[in-house]
Amino acid sequence: MSGTIVDAIFARFLQGGQWGLPSDDPTDKDNFTSTLFMREPGQFRLLQPIWDLRLGHEDYVRSPLFPIVLSVLFYFGCVVPFTVFDLFGRNWNWIQKYKIQTDRVVTWQAVRNAMVLTTWNHLLFLLPVSVAQWVWTPDTQLPTVAPGLWEFCWQQYAALAIFDFEYFAWHFLHHKIRFLYRHVHSVHHHYSSPNAWVTQYLHPYELITVGIFTTTSPWWFAAHPLTQWSFMQFSILVSVDAHIGYDLPFLPHHWMPFWGGSIKHDMHHQKPLSNFQPFFNWWDRLLGTECPGQLAGGYRPKAMTDWEKERETSSSAAAPGQYGFDEPVMESKRF
Q1: What is the 3-state secondary structure (H, E, C) of the chain?
Q2: What is the pLDDT of residues 122-164, one digit of tens each?
Q3: 250-271 pLDDT, tens per residue?
């Protein structure tokens, strides 16, 4: 589709002059003049100015290394503010009042432990994969025209839903199969009280799996490079959100009923056999594994206490070879 309804509406408002459409027929190739929002006749794009930031830097942007470097830098940029809050802002009431597990303190030892494994995984596993991708993967084809605004948005949310299902299935199996949990996923559960650095505190196999899911999810739609790169950052942002340990008032779970977010994933680290979805909650609801989250200030709503009472009997009577809802593994290493 050459355009979208959203872009067409804005095109009408911005028509004329250098900011929008040329005053003559925009489909007339002979008389066409490139504008800020249109690089080809009839191809008005609100995102064109952002896409044009690549101009003059194409050699770097088309490299297979570009989205990897962008994602790594964006990840570190996301976790640093919450590291400051956890380590230096313990007396800052304006942020600490939103902490979920108020009885747990994020220590430098816990942060350092996560930082070391994250750095080790990046150097030992991601770096060789990145170099191999740079050597053998062809450069990204960079189209002249930006993606349509509607296409840019819905494809990212659809890709997130695909990733969410893929990881939900992987996650569910790696909790239900004791061998996989003990030797792979239990690494991530060294932390029963997560912080932002725990987002990528993973077994290398899990880290590579997550990377594959993230990279391939937009491929279902043959997404524009800008859409693919934006999705990578978007998925990092919501992944960090799930691990920050804060119930901030502007986070999506407050206004999106199908969103899990920090309160649900924080509860997953406390009760490992609940809330398997990384972002949404519909599969957990369907399978009966959704647990209401603990809220800001450590508040435990009635729905959560009722859930705990209902599961108390089943957890205490777990069959051999199964875990209870809050049974830890490798307790000596848990934070």
Answers
A1: CCCCHHHHHHHHHCCCCCCCCCCCCCCCCCCCCCCCCECCCCCECCCHHHHHHHCCCHHHHCCCCHHHHHHHHHHHHHHHHHHHHHHHCCCCHHHHCCECCCCCCCCHHHHHHHHHHHHHHHHHHHHHHHHHHHHHCCCCCCCCCCCCHHHHHHHHHHHHHHHHHHHHHHHHHHHHCHHHHHHCHHHHHHCCCCCHHHHHCCCHHHHHHHHHHHHHHHHHHCCCHHHHHHHHHHHHHHHHHHHCCECCCCCHHHCCCCECHHHHHHHHHHCCCCCCCCCECHHHHHHCCCCCCCCHHHCCCHHHHHHHHHHHHHHHCCCCCCCCCCCCCCHHHCC
A2: 999 989 988 998 888 899 999 999 999 999 999 999 999 999 9
A3: 999 999 989 999 999 999 999 9
